[in-house]
Amino acid sequence: MDNRPWFRARSGGLGWTPVTWEGWLVTLAGATVFIVGDLILLGVIKL
User: Fold this and answer.
1) What's the pLDDT tens digit per position in 1-47?
2) HEC states along 9-35?
3) How far apart are CA 42 and CA 34, in angstroms?
4) Residue 18 zone, left/alpha/beta (φ > 0; ψ -120 to 50; rest)
5) Distance CA 6, CA 3 (A)
């Protein structure tokens, strides 16, 4: 197992940026959850 960090601190500004495919996968999953949650709250997606 590789022990490289999935994210690194940005050189300027705030936050972290993904540096491995695992970091990008976590970022994509989080964005998907956020967007689907917004669509549910707006009533576009009915549960």
Assistant:
1) 678 999 999 988 899 999 999 999 999 999 999 999 999 999 999 88
2) ECCCCCCEEECCHHHHHHHHHHHHHHH
3) 12
4) beta
5) 9
